[in-house]
Amino acid sequence: MSTTGNLPCNVKFMVEGEEEVGSVNLEKFCIDHKEMLVADVILISDTTMIALNTPSVTSGLRGLSYVQVEVTGPNRDLHSGLYGGAVVNPCNVLCDMVASLKDKWGRVTIPGFYDDVKECNPEERAEMAKRPYDKDKFMQSVGVTHLQGEEGYSDLERIGIRPTLDINGIWGGYTGEGAKTILPSKAFAKISMRLVPYQNAERIADLFIKHFISLAPEGVAVKAEYLHGGESYVSPLDTPEYSSASLAVEDVLNKKPIPVRSGGSIPIVSTFEKVLGIKSILLGFGLESDAIHSPNENFPVENFLKGIETIVLYHRNYDQMKQKLTG
User: Of 40, 44, 104, 134, which is the most exposed, with the fewest CB atoms less than 10 Å away?
Assistant: First the structure.
């Protein structure tokens, strides 16, 4: 607007601060204000690209199903010398239970977990394999010396197109400084499952809860609660909406972007499609080096400025393409 004095299309801004807790109130807002939110496309920049010299546009997101579990044994913390070896230890039990949730091939062992998974065809997998990837550099960036995951898939496929199960936090008993010899009363864990197209977050949570409770040995009680989740999302690559983004990135960075399926989740994206009937374009400019969800999270100024240029061109491109389609 500062350059031309106008916008080529109407723009509505939506700002919300609950994405990290599942956007629990945003769906109702969309339902209650559906007419006000009418639009042709939703543009979201809460995603990343490979690099400025290897640009990409996020073409898909995994879904999420997040649960918390609680294992209870004795009615209070006990002296481990006087009771250990006879009374069931909830921390020991919880470790055994969560360890059994994956087999030696890296597959999730919950019955029915893979029933609705849409497998990518060989052509799609070949296209994904074109993405630049340096395994040693990737490991070095996170400080590990070995990678593992579901057998039969590459590292990038494990992150982008396969469902996973991970322990996000686990605790119980005494966790302060020094020693305290107790047999704890309770143990807890937070567990997230990243989902792919056609897996439903609530159904996966139900399958998890049923299976996890069935794993409990005698001597403990188990509770499992579904905290929040969202569905996966895939953006078609043959639409004016995606083409406008691809051309804008190419104009600014002088290279055609690679479509990338991200392992992350933005639950509201699928809700936008379900409630408003609008597809989203995920045009983000973050980098793997931004330390997302870690200390010293950052965002390069150059990416910020290039992002502004790209989004300006996106609006221009989209307006022109829509006008051609409508005559």
Answer: 104
